[in-house]
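Researcher: Next entry in the queue.
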Amino acid sequence: MIIEYKTLDLFGKMVFERVILKPPFRKANPLPDEACMLYVIEGKYRSFSETEQLQVSRKEAVLMQCGNYLGQMLGSDASPYYEAVAVHFYPEVLKKIYENDLPGFLKRPLAQSNRAMAKLQGDALLQNYIDSILFLFTNPELATEDLLIVKVKELILLLVNSKHAAKVHQILANLFTPQAVSFREIVHAHLFAPLTTKELAQLTNQSLSSFKREFRKIFNASPSEYIKAKRMQKAAELLALTDQSITEIAYDCGFNDSAYFSAAFKAHYALSPSRYRLNQKNKNLS
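Model: Structure for this entry, 286 residues:
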């Protein structure tokens, strides 16, 4: 449930964003032509890109290159609420605020990286910056165009001069050249992530019906059939080769409910997970 949501716009674009909500909460987060830094004030944020997943907690941030994302907002032991501030970097806005004279680190071409996201540990400088943005949300009459330009430049300078400079440079410099990720890569990257078929479709930037058609064409099976088979295969390997608990294996294979996992495993192999593990151990001893 969203409790509070505010934005601050610059040149007709939403550049600053603040949200307070009661988790759990999930939403698509497409960034087709922008990079974004999301800073968590309370709770946790789990981000899924086309090929990665990453979780940040209180006083941490995630920097995302342009692409398709899904976000899961979670509570924490310290607070049942989720609060975050996001700053969006658009190529056309950056060109305008730098008056078409972009800093060198934004113009120098870099080798393409397969990393779409970077985790940033918070420090006093970043915390103070976020506090200054929260002040503007509380006093929006002070958020003039000139001040918002200064705040965008301030954050970029803060990030490129931090200990995370290499990660920041890579993502911001490649802002103008988004990567193309194949359908197959996206599916294989999230076989064991707790995502629905609809959410996978969003990561591929397709409608659910188009996604299902493309999936069957490539994998010769429906998404649910193919993903379930891969998860069962991995679960069987973990049961045979590791001492992980059944709950841990369920989670590692994309199941949030160990009871549901056990029922699905038994339906697939005609054995419960514990019986399957015991049979494998007996085979190894014989």
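Model: The chain has twelve helices and ten strands.
Researcher: Noted, moving on.
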